[in-house]
Give the backbone structure.
Amino acid sequence: MSRPHLWIRAEARPTEQRVPIVPADAARLIADGFRVTVEESPTRVFGLEEYVAVGCDTAPTGSWVDAPQGAVVVGIKELPEDPADLQHTHVFFAHAYKGQEGAEEVLERFRRGGGELLDVEYLTVDGKRVVAFGFWAGYVGAALAVLRHRGELPGEVGPMSRADLDARLRSTREGRAAERALVIGARGRSGTGATEALTVAGCAVTRWDRVDTVRLDRPALLDHDILVNCVVSAQPREPFVTEADLEAPRRLRTVGDVTCDVTSEANLLPFNTAITTWQKPVRRFGSQEHPLEVIAIDNLPSLLPRESSESFSAELGPLLPDLADRAGPWAASLAWFRRHVH
Ligand SMILES: NC(=O)c1ccc[n+]([C@@H]2O[C@H](COP(=O)([O-])OP(=O)(O)OC[C@H]3O[C@@H](n4cnc5c(N)ncnc54)[C@H](O)[C@@H]3O)[C@@H](O)[C@H]2O)c1
């Protein structure tokens, strides 16, 4: 069976420590007949020596531009702006098919260079995504909400390990009554992660999914200390929290909005219309007496780079034997590319 040469590029963003294939999975791929080249990276959470130890070749940062023609360049986030023409097959999250800012330029680079994009977001089986970062997004999103609620998140956030995060979740619970925390979208990937973090934190967790919001019981919703919104929402519908709720007395004080649907028509927390950042993670609403604080960070998985990389790699690895034939989920992703690039 044919095995393409996998080229793991260095991420362009200086804050991005994740990697799509971790050393343990690179070892499995090499045993299965793949050649794996890993670029040097100043930020990656796994050291280059860990890849060398399992038999990967190494290459300088950004040298994928000169990779052999058949190599498949694998990354997570956007490509650097150079070169102008893309000749290789690239696997990454391009965010290029929904009219996003800069999307047309990216597609034009592929068109000009004759390259091919196999966008990870569009790797699907029976229409369902098979590689995603949702679990750890929910985990860290819920964890930050709890820490903020406990007065333990005063300033900036940055990449951390799960062990450190869990230690903070456990140490800050001592001597407190368990907070009432509600996860909506609890059966999904991020909802499952959120539930796990809240459990580690010692919260009393309520889990709602679709059936529980058909007739929204807003008083019950507002009678929680913490809300973590993990709902995939495509159409406008009755908001979970309204402007009117902001001024009124309520138990709810902290919201982790994992969806970050802040500018979408389908925003279920429409009082908030902006994301928050690692530098300024919290936005404050409501009155002095009845504040409501929201964390809506749109790159949550990068805050747990090791765990996010491990789970991503575990999902991607088993798909790679089908890559050479563009079979299975690769065919689905390629179809999206062909629809957009002729
Ligand atoms: N902030 C970040 O860094 C980050 C990272 C990854 C994903 N996300 C976002 O998180 C969201 C969730 O992603 P996911 O991978 O967990 O999705 P998912 O499809 O695994 O789960 C979504 C869940 O929402 C439920 N749901 C849908 N409509 C509902 C409703 N009206 N009421 C209650 N539940 C409802 C679904 O049944 C499902 O269980 C998406 O918007 C995604 O883009 C954000």
